[in-house]
Amino acid sequence: MAAAPELDRPTLAALIALVRKHTGITMGEHKRNLLERRLRPRMDALALSGYRAYLDRVEQDSDEVPHFIDLVTTNDTLFFRTPQIWAYLEQEFLPQWWSEHRGKRLDIWSAAAASGEELYSLAMLCEEFHAKHPAFRYRIVGTDISRQMLDLARSGCYSGRSVQRLREAYPARLANYFQPSPQGCMQVNDTLRKNIELRCHNLLHPLQPQQQFDLVLLRNVLIYFDLAHQHTVLEQARRSMAHHAVMIIGESESISRLDTAYTLARPMIYQMKAVAS
Ligand SMILES: C[S@@+](CC[C@H](N)C(=O)[O-])C[C@H]1O[C@@H](n2cnc3c(N)ncnc32)[C@H](O)[C@@H]1O
To answer: For ligand 1, what atom is nearest to the CA of residue 110?
Structure first.
């Protein structure tokens, strides 16, 4: 086996700058091993001589950029990740929203949807609410910067720890909304898919077309940005939120150091600040 090519310091710095340019993600030099581990197989597949050659390829060939983005983003997710959020959505948010907006459609944005577990968890809650309130309607937009993740979300095909989590914690939901597929995974059924739309989107840019969402899940993505980019992402998200909207972030995230349009309602849950008239 050929010896691993060296990721020298100038190339590491240039790769870190390229990650920031294409994703907004801030990486320090301590991410050297992560970058080596993730980029090496791609470099080998393209028969490139080293990291500098791969860097040049990404800079010169725009078709390589989506692959680069897929490799440098971290896409961990789970169905019903952080159970207290899902209890809040099911027991408080949905009944309250329905009592205040009967007759309207609930618009939800899963803003860093990764492979889609968050989207389909939302759809399961909405379907269950719809079963109790037949006039309830909803639509969920899922976005991510990684095309590979969006393809996975679109396939709705899950295995491994994603399915294990459902089997252990929510067996009735696994039985109700999934079926075994010939590929050997568990596939979401059409009931869950019908109100979902997926789009590739960079959170640092305005979401197009503009929409006024009632609920935005921006979970476990802010941690990858520095304060300036967190501010930009939150400001872009605000433009796509109705004045009564609720935004939820991840459990290891905080936006308290930033001056934003959001006010903390309880841990992880934010509301838009009332605008002074
Ligand atoms: C750790 S996952 C979070 C998934 C899910 N929200 C959750 O909490 O389980 C972070 C996701 O953010 C996406 N991401 C990173 N930078 C992004 C950007 N600038 N715009 C949009 N999505 C981005 C990654 O591709 C990845 O799928």
So the answer is: 6
* Atom number, ligand 1, closest to the C-alpha of residue 144: 22
Q: Where are the beta strands (DSSP E) in the chain?
A: 105-110, 137-144, 157-158, 178-180, 186-188, 196-200, 213-217, 241-248, 262-266, 269-272
| Ligand 1 pocket residues where CB is under 6 Å | 23-25, 73-77, 81, 112, 114, 118, 144-146, 149, 201-204, 219-221, 224, 250
173: CATH: 3.40.50.150
Written as six digits, the tokens of 116 are 């889609």
Count of domains for the chain = 2
Confirm whether 30 is domain-assigned: yes
Length of the chain: 277
Pocket perturbation via mutation, ligand 1, pick of 69, 144, 158 by most ligand atoms within 8 A of CB: 144
Q: Which domain holds residue 49?
A: 9-72
Per-residue confidence (pLDDT) for residue 183, from 0 to 100: 87
Q: Is 248 helix (H, G, I), strand (E, B) or coil?
A: strand
142 and 87 assigned to the same domain: yes
Residue found under tokens 């960079």: 202
* Partners of 139 in beta bridges: 107
Task: Looking at the structure, tell me whether residues 64 and 153 fall in a common domain.
Answer: no
CA-based Rg of the chain, rounded to a whole angstrom?
20
- pLDDT for 210 equals 87
105-161 per-position pLDDT tens digit: 999 999 999 999 999 999 999 999 999 999 999 999 999 999 999 999 999 999 999
- Is residue 180 one of the residues assigned to a domain? yes
Q: Does residue 67 belong to any structural domain of this protein?
A: yes
Instruction: Name the nearest CA neighbour of 116 among 69, 149, 80, 165.
Output: 149
Q: Report pLDDT for 82.
A: 97
Tell whether omega for the bond before 209 is within 30 degrees of 0, i.e. cis: yes
